Amino acid sequence: MNRINPNKLNLSKWTAVTPQNREKHFLVTKLLKDEEGVVQQCVLEAVLTHRQEIVGWQQLTDSDHWQQGWC
Fold first, then answer.
1. N or C: more exposed end of the chain, with fewer CB within 10 A?
2. CB 32 within 8 A of CB 54
3. Rounded to whole angstroms, how far apart are CA atoms 70 and 17?
4. For the CA atoms of 1, 3, 71, 15, what is the dihedral angle to 10 degrees?
5. Within a 13 Å sphere around the CA of 4, how many CA atoms are in the beta-carbon half?
6. Closest Cα to residue 63, out of 18, 24, 12, 11?
7. What residues pair up with 14 in beta bridges, in sequence order?
């Protein structure tokens, strides 16, 4: 289990444990917040293809799917 502070996720680097379509390295490019300013989701961008996807920041805490940094 990765311990993370959702407010410090912007521009953080992540590695997918099981890459799909050769997309292994990701960068958090944007944080999506609610009306009170609490982080709800983040935008991950694949470094190789520049494809973006929106995920709940809590998914990044699952070490079976994500590793912090680029490995």
1. N
2. yes
3. 11
4. 80
5. 24
6. 18
7. 26, 68
Tokens 């079976």 sit at which residue?
64
- pLDDT tens for 3-59 read 899 999 999 999 999 999 999 999 999 999 999 999 999 999 999 999 999 999 999
Beta carbons within 8 Å of 57's beta carbon, 6+ residues apart: 4, 6, 9, 31, 39, 40, 41, 42
What dihedral angle (degrees, nearest 10) is formed by the CA atoms of 48, 51, 53, 58?
A: 10
Q: What pLDDT sits at residue 37?
A: 94
AA identity, residue 69? G
